[in-house]
Design goal:
Elements lengths: L2 H18 L2 E4 L3 E7 L2 E6 L2 E4 L5 E2 L4 E2 L3 E11 L5 E12 L2 H6 L4 H17 L4 H6 L1 H16 L4 E12 L2 H43 L1 H16 L5 E3 L7 H11 L9 E3 L2
Parallel strand pairs: 10-11
Antiparallel strand pairs: 1-4, 2-3, 2-5, 2-6, 7-8, 8-9
């Protein structure tokens, strides 16, 4: 084999490798925008694609899967002038890959800054209590505003969730004391309500006993029976109490057959 043949084989091998270098394999979720001599000619992928070396160029591979992005606002004042730091997470995906490449230089970075500035704007329009208790509502508002900003870039914002709201320690202590005072107020109101209801029932019972002496007598028997059943007690019953005789007989009947002073009823 002469020198000329060797040179020819080297040239052929170089040409073959040169053309084979344009073969690329893209995953199912990947897309490749192709620029030919600087002009956009279309989107390729997934699978095996061919890009002409030197003539064609792929600026970046775009993934069409859902992406997550964490962002936060440094200390920002709420509507009631409380400094807070809010951490949030955003879920988005490219839905128009052509717009992601042609309309914005870096769609991920642009989406990040749009989310951060929107978070500051929304925090400044709500009060602290609303921010703490209505996170889902505020997250939905954030999603709508960010989605409007990124629509021209071919990015769809699926959801925005607020992870954490950090407030100054002094304010946390004040809120804790306020919550404790509120719980104590509720406890006192509940106790006062129970006392009022109990007093009302006692007044109602007194009126019933006043109308029915027999009911009062039966109540006396029940009370004396409860007292005598608690141990070695001597019960002194005034002679003038209503139903005295019946009460004494009832207690004696309860203790009939027992010896000793247990349950003894004494009448002065």
């Amino acid at each position: 084999m002469g020198p000329a043949m060797i040179i020819l084989l080297v040239v052929v091998l170089f040409v073959v490798l040169f053309f084979l270098s344009g073969i690329r394999v893209l995953k199912e979720w990947e897309r490749a925008p192709v620029l030919r001599l600087g002009r956009y000619i279309g989107m390729k992928g997934p699978g095996i694609i061919y890009v002409f070396p030197i003539i064609d160029r792929v600026p970046r591979i775009v993934s069409t899967r859902i992406k997550t992005m964490s962002f936060k606002s440094e200390q920002t004042l709420t509507l009631d002038n409380v400094p807070v730091t809010v951490d949030a997470v955003m879920y988005f995906k490219p839905v128009d890959v052509e717009a992601c490449i042609l309309n914005v230089e870096d769609y991920e970075e642009a989406t990040y800054w749009a989310a951060q500035t929107t978070l500051r704007e929304v925090i400044g329009r709500v009060r602290l209590q609303e921010l703490l208790s209505h996170r889902e509502k505020i997250g939905e508002e954030l999603r709508k505003i960010i989605d409007e900003k990124t629509e021209a870039w071919g990015v769809k914002v699926l959801s925005v969730e607020i992870k954490d709201v950090v407030i100054p320690q002094a304010l946390q202590d004040a809120m804790s004391r306020q919550a404790q005072a509120e719980r104590e107020r509720i406890a006192r109101v509940t106790l006062a309500t129970a006392e009022y209801e109990a007093a009302s029932k006692m007044v109602e019972a007194a009126r019933l006993y006043e109308k029915s002496p027999q009911a009062l007598t039966l109540r006396w028997i029940n009370v004396l029976s409860e007292i005598s059943s608690r141990g070695n007690l001597v019960v002194l019953v005034p002679m003038g109490m209503p139903g005295l005789g019946l009460a004494s007989l009832g207690l004696v009947g309860l203790k009939k057959g027992e010896r000793g002073s247990e349950g003894e009823v004494s009448s002065p």
